[in-house]
Design brief:
The chain has about 475 residues and is of the alpha/beta class. The chain is about 30% helix and about 20% strand. It has a 10-stranded mixed β-sheet, sandwiched between helices. A 4-stranded antiparallel β-sheet has the order 11-12-13-14, with helices on one face. A hairpin with a 5-residue loop joins strand 4 and strand 5. The radius of gyration is 22 Å and the shape is globular. The two termini are about 40 Å apart. This is Arylsulfatase A.
Amino acid sequence: MSRHDRQDLGRRGFLAGAAAVASAAVAGTAVTGAAATPAAAASRPNILVILTDDQPNATEWATPNTVGWLVDNGVKFSRGHVSTPLCAPSRSSIFSGRYAHNHGVRDNSSPYNLDQHTTVQRYLHNSGYRTGLFGKYLNAWTNTDNPQHFDDWLLLDPVAYNNGTYNDNGTVRTIAGYSTTVIKNRVLDFLDTAGTDNRPWFAFVAPKAPHGPNTPEPKYADTAVPAWNGRPSVPEADRSDKPDYIKNATHTLDDGRTIRRNQLRTLLSVDDAVQEIHDKLAALGQLDNTLVFYLGDNGYCWGDHGWTAKSVPYRPAIEVPFYVSWPAAGLDGGTVDDRIAANIDIAPTILDAAGITPDTPQNGHSLLGSYRRDHLLVEWWHRGEGGDPHTWASTVSATRQYTEYYKLHTDTGGQQVGTGELVFREYYDLANDPYQLTNLLYQATPAQEAALGIPALAAQLAADRAA
């Protein structure tokens, strides 16, 4: 049996098991907002979302426990993406299953644009789930405001590594200690309540790590990490075919090494927390029927194309670790799924598993079904006037990526303003140029563009931005 056949067999087993569990759930709670019955509560899965902050791919060294649980005994989506490589828009897409141009949180300054009626926590809470939020929520959320549709929360704001300020179920206070550990301990308390509360639960767990300043826990402050010699995109010697902000980027391999080292050190504490959560679920007898997601809210460039941040339409920024496990549904086989998965798929998958039909539209699709997209819209807005990078949108498939930059930005309310004038384009053959070194549209003739299929890609991008 070939590797492909083994993966396909594992996926078919997962889909069959998921369908059986979801069918049982639907029988009890198909109506949106209906109260859960004891029978339904017994069949519906618990939901655990672990969301790291700025975690790119190629970080598995720091998360062996996470990989052992959710990859070796789950499914790794090898083409995991975010639809906007920025914290608040990405998190809003996870909560709502919608693209940023639909949920309205286009930048990190407008969290209140998210319609809370569309969120997965609202659906789950109204359907009888016990809901909890632990860690970072949405950028620029006022820490005296309680997050809606959560029964229990420890909201970290401003987001810090040590001695953070938290909204603790309505009381704002400082809690001493390393924030990853503080958050983990509160999650364990939340899980312990399952011993006396038989409702299914939803826990959204969001540590600061590995976001800058990448402050490691003291015990990991000097931990040696594996050597890294970069990749062809770091820092890329000739960027004449790139947009101006990339042409002018000045970050080096050494800059990338520093960021990588510090990110890995902070992730070691996340991995410890994941292991303790795993062990708690096992002790409670709830490991089998808990649907678990682990992903980053966006990736991060380690000097790729001279850039050390997110916000760009390049693979290190838009691709993330994306792991899923649900043993009760057969999702524990250590398979690799090569479908293009995205953060917009989290909410639809959760609702599918819980047997809940949303009453608001979603752009994502349940990963429990056989749906396979052939491309994904990725979009990003520049906040305020001036500066680079310009607002951009991109259509990404397994083999190619087409990007357009526009004269658009967000105003103080997070709304899109500007002329929309197209100012630059990029096209990469990802099959032959995975590091995006050669922009095939640079100085291309109309005939060459037609041969690359650019008119059709541009039309597809325009349609996706309007959908």
